[in-house]
Amino acid sequence: MDKHTVAFLLLDVAVIIAAARVGGMIARAVRQPAVVGEIAAGIALGPSLLGLLPGSPDEWLFPEEVRPLLGGLAQIGLVLFMFIVGLELDMRLTRGRERAAASISAFSIVLPFGLGAALGLLLYPSHDTVGGVEIERLGMVLFMGVAMSITAFPVLARILADRGMMRTVPGVFSLAAAAVDDILAWTLLAFIIAIIEGGNPLEVARIVGMTLVYAAVMFGIVRPLLAKLVEWRDSAGRLTPDILAVILIGVFLSAAATDVIGIHQIFGAFMFGAVMPKVGAEQLHREILERLEQVSVLLLLPMFFVVTGLSVDLGGIGLSGLWQLGLVLVVAIAGKFLGAYAGARASAIPTRQSAAIAVLMNTRGLTELVILSAGRDLGVLSDDLFAMLVVMALVTTVLTEPLLRAVYPDTVVANDIAAAERRALAAATAPRVLVVLRDPDGTVDDLRARHRRLLDCTTGYDVVLAGLLTSADGRGKRLEVGVPVVPDFAAMASAIEKLNLLGASLTGSGSVSVLCRFSADPATDLDAMTRNANADVIVIDAADRELGEKLRAAPVAIVDENAGAGVAPGRSVVTCVVADSRSGRTAAVVAAGLALFGSRSLTVVSAGSRRRWLADLRPVVDRGVRVSVVEPRRHQGESGAFTVAAGDDILHGRGPDVPVTVVDNTETSEEALGERMTTLYADAPESADPVKTTDRSQTTDTTRSTSSPERH
């Protein structure tokens, strides 16, 4: 390799990286996946655009001696991408919805495959020669069928994450169907490649037999060995270079093995990702994605886009080929849409949600380019047909986002999530509190110990345990190489399970329900959850005081676990220091409830009329609560009192001996204090039986596990 070649290689790499980043930014600006802009940039650097300029600058910029080097980098990028596709494949996505996922996937493969094969028969006379060699009709027909059957799981997951649809019916079922689709489509493609490469029945049988042996080794030997990576990573506390090196060595050896077998290196990379440990490996997956993003997204995949773009000459299609391009687009869009829609409707999914699923299953993106690249390597796609199919991959991906917004607009997404959350709630039996538990780490016992006082304050109330998990966008940088869907789903499933167990352990509460969300905007999401739950009070830990002060949907009781050590509402006199403010009056309402369901003893420290206070507190007095009204100047403080104060009370609101601080920033008209007491406590049960409810429906949500996906 001479210096001239090296210089052009370095120049080309710089140009490609810059073009890919600019293309990705433009795509995101118009609400498209970044990969759309990156693919378009790769095509623009080829003969379709740059080659139209005088002097054919594409040939000067990418000389023949440099293109094989770019091709090598592109193949490495392709292998890493297919490893990520396999890594994100986890059949836990289908748990609880296996039949619907299988139905949608089967319909969305069978119909497009049949139409694609028929299209291959129709187009074969016009594209029967590749590089001067006549291709087999069967190979082209089968390949056209599988090319029309692909769904891009990574792009689909990114669109769902961007739209906030992972807790909706379309989000849940499209992801589950796409997981099944991946298995069926890639298996089918491997078999078709075996047929094409084999040429005769004996050779096909040899390739199939070796592939089965390879799969048995991967699942029977390699998979158990890889399971040790989780323990290795956990003991190290991070993804070390040694762990990543072991993974990459395995990826490339697996890819090399399938290339030798004759079913293309992409299958080896995909298979290695598929046999990576899934259960308990969520953090490992995220760290792998974060590491690979640096080299894959920035450097290697753009090489693949340009190598693909150099093979695409849109001008070569010509006017005579436009009808063929139109036919390709119609078959691709209609086949996938009608197939997925029929599968969803066969599973009794409503019309609008079925249409949204069908739109989502039509996205193809980079995954389609991988398939087409394999077809070009196999010699079953002519240059013109390859260009048409690349255009199809771009168009179907570009159409997904606007069509999805038309079929399933943001207002419907929000309404569906709210309706699902309301369905998850038990029937009201007492005043309802929404207990906020952010990122509930540790065991149930850990949560119980960490939030003992906060949970004690729920006695007598209907309880909604609201798990708020920091979303990927809230944790740090946004990943481009993949969306950690399954790790996030597993985290959600774990949180739901823990909150259900925690709810079952509560004693003296009314009904207990669980809601759980990912959130990049906790205040907005908590307000929405509060409205959906129709909660009377939000209870939050003092560690999240700043968040509590932002909430507007209901009054907030901020519980300090460390203030006033040893006191509790169930065994201590509840003392409310009432400020002359909205928060002060709400503090009296909260204190009255704590006394009613706790020690039955309430002291009100207020300069107001004693008679008026007793009248306002009549609903709890009639229920057996002993009430004392003391003027502030005469209040000496009671040893062991459980104090409730208003957050805007300068003297008492954040004192070291105030376990509960109340903040009322609601924006509704304030009711009279006596009316609020009557509404909340007049008909409340004397002692609430601990009726625990958990929503096990599979109607909505992404993160469903064995209980309920996102508890919506």
UniProtKB/TrEMBL annotation:
Protein's UniProt name: Cation:proton antiporter
Source organism of this protein record: Gordonia westfalica
Chain residue ranges for the region called Disordered: 679-712
Stretches assigned to the Cation/H+ exchanger transmembrane domain: 18-404
Residue stretches of biased makeup (Low complexity): 696-712
Membrane protein topology class: Multi-pass membrane protein
Record keywords: Ion transport, Membrane, Transmembrane, Transmembrane helix, Transport
Pfam family of the protein (one): Na_H_Exchanger
Gene3D superfamilies referenced in this protein's UniProt entry, alphabetically: 1.20.1530.20
TM region positions: 6-27, 39-57, 69-89, 101-126, 138-160, 172-195, 207-227, 239-257, 263-280, 292-310, 322-343, 385-404
UniProt subcellular location: Membrane
Main location: membrane
Entry superkingdom: Bacteria
